[in-house]
């Protein structure tokens, strides 16, 4: 009777060992899948990091280009204002001097008079030139609103 119990117990232990072995195999397979998933995730992360680095380089170049273009624009606006002031002075001189109106025909005088009147308003008003793009989105974003600070980028990455 004890032998029979040992056989029954032995059979039960054998089935337990088989179940444990199956659980270990299922766990091993799950670990393999997770390892593959981890490898794919690391590869995807490497690709995304490379893309992010490339985009940061592009952003840096774009920021530098914006800065260069803003400086060019300010220089051009200053030069334009200077030239407009010179033109205004010449027009005023021509209109005031009697020899200026004598040397010019009546038609030329009227054109200069109209031009002087129009330029006078421009010369007295502060000069503000904008491109079509600036005018369309000036209220949304002006060049003074552009921040070159990288702290926001650093916070996002952390």
What does this 3D model show about the protein?
This protein has 5 helices and no strands. By secondary structure, the protein is mainly α. It has a domain at 1-70. The relative contact order is 0.05. It comes from Ptilorrhoa leucosticta.
Characteristic key phrases:
158 residues; mainly alpha; 5 helices; 84% helix
**Class computed from helices, strands and strand pairing:** mainly alpha
Could you give a short account of the major beta sheet? none
Low-pLDDT stretches are: 120-142
Give helix and strand order, one letter per element, not per position. Answer: HHHHH
Helix and strand arrangement:
Blueprint: H1 2-96, H2 98-103, H3 106-124, H4 132-137, H5 151-157
Summary?
One of its GO terms (biological process) is Rho protein signal transduction. This is RGAP1 protein. This protein has 158 residues and is mostly helical.
């Amino acid at each position: 009777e004890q032998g029979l119990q040992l056989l029954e117990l032995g059979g039960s232990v054998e089935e337990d060992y088989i179940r444990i072995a199956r659980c270990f195999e299922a766990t091993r397979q799950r670990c393999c899948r997770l390892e593959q998933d981890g490898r794919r995730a690391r590869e995807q992360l490497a690709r995304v990091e490379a893309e992010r680095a490339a985009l940061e380089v592009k952003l840096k170049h774009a920021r530098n280009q914006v800065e260069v273009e803003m400086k060019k624009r300010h220089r051009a606006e200053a030069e334009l204002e200077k030239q407009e002031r010179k033109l205004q002075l010449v027009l005023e001189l021509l209109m005031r001097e009697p020899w200026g109106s004598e040397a010019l025909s009546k038609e030329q005088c009227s054109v200069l008079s109209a031009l002087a009147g129009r330029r006078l308003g421009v010369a007295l008003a502060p000069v503000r030139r904008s491109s079509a793009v600036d005018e369309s989105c000036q209220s949304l974003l002006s060049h003074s609103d552009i921040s070159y600070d990288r702290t926001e980028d650093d916070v996002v990455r952390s």
